[in-house]
Amino acid sequence: xxxxxxxxxxxxxxxxxxxxxxxxxxxxxxxxxxxxxxxxxxxxxxxxxxxxxxxxxxxxxxxxxxxxxxxxxxxxxxxxxxxxxxxxxxxxxxxxxxxxxxxxxxxxxxxxxxxxxxxxxxxxxxxxxxxxxxxxxxxxxxxxxxxxxxxxxxxxxxxxxxxxxxxxxxxxxxxxxxxxxxxxxxxxxxxxxxxxxxxxxxxxxxxxxxxxxxxxxxxxxxxxxxxxxxxxxxxxxxxxxxxxxxxxxxxxxxxxxxxxxxxxxxxxxxxxxxxxxxxxxxxxxxxxxxxxxxxxxxxxxxxxxxxxxxxxxxxxxxxxxxxxxxxxxxxxxxxxxxxxxxxxxxxxxxxxxxxxxxxxxxxxxxxxxxxxxxxxxxxxxxxxxxxxxxxxxxxxxxxxxxxxxxxxxxxxxxxxxxxxxxxxxxxx
Length: 428
What we know:
The chain is of the alpha+beta class. The protein has three domains: 6-156, no CATH class; 204-327, CBS-domain (Roll); 341-418, 2-Layer Sandwich (Uridine Diphospho-n-acetylenolpyruvylglucosamine Reductase, domain 3), CATH 3.30.465. It has helices at 6-32, 35-43, 47-56, 59-88, 94-119, 121-138, 140-156, 171-179, 187-198, 204-207, 223-231, 258-263, 268-275, 289-299, 319-327, 357-364, 376-384, and strands at residues 209-210, 217-218, 237-241, 248-253, 282-284, 303-307, 313-318, 341-343, 349-352, 393-396, 399-407, 410-418. The strands form three sheets. A five-stranded antiparallel beta sheet has the order 8-9-12-11-10, with helices on one face. Strands 1-7-6-5 form a four-stranded mixed beta sheet. It has a three-stranded mixed beta sheet with strand order 2-3-4. Helix 2 packs across helix 3 and helix 4 (59-88) packs antiparallel against helix 5 (94-119).
């Protein structure tokens, strides 16, 4: 047997180490690849991305090909080292030579390439597709046979071989992706995206205008009172009802009456006729905001009345309310913290009891609970279990709250300060 020249043996050994490093590094890179970024590059028309996506459609075949190649080059490297050692140094050095080969493969063909592939997956994964695609075609019968036995073994242990890796994201997972986008997406845009996802968690009764704050026209009032209400109206749309909001006859658009009101041509019958042109829209409690947003779009309406299981009106939800959940409060005065909040000179905040807990948390960065009462008034009444007198103070979730004004069995206004450590909350 003709001895193999040492230079040829070392050249072959070096080629095996490089090939092993290629298989190890690209395997990690391909498995670590961001599938959504890859899909974006596919849509951008990149050929390497298309080839890579096709390879990843069947990861079992790709893994079989990589392990087949890696096993062959590692076995070849071991055979070369054994042959050279036996010819040059004898059997006594065989263990030492194989030990050195193991260290070389571990450092230069496993740990190093795999680490680089994990840190820079696209750098290795996309170019490697030009190598793996023709290799898969050439070795397909062998790869198919390996997969046949491997998939059969998986079926025996209860793991279906036909199952595909799922890369779709749930809403919670998508929230995490948006939150971890960092500088790639501006902070304000991240907040808006998360707010859109949160629409499915929020219901209309979380953001509705409470029933007692809905402005409307009662047809049972004197005509002079109705005219005064129309002239002082601050909204473009107002419900017209008989007796109470549970008997709405229609929704009045102020643009339809302003001219007749100025000319003095408006009377009760004409008012009813104008109001009945637009019937009220009702929505049950518990309807999520994403459902209501779609409903507004389909009905081409901008507001709806929230009703309970008995059909009684509980509040009013508008398209603007839903949009504010996404982009924040609409205001032309940046100095205003919230429409229901005013800051005193001493730094305390005077807050309307009717303000919703969600809007206060969003505007003032508070952490009041949102899984119970929807308004600050409801939260205080639930905590005290009674209607408080003006001057009553309590500690509420890290805030010191002083009751300023009550009326109609509700808390009208409160003064809020940051709670001092160690203070207790009196009840009753």
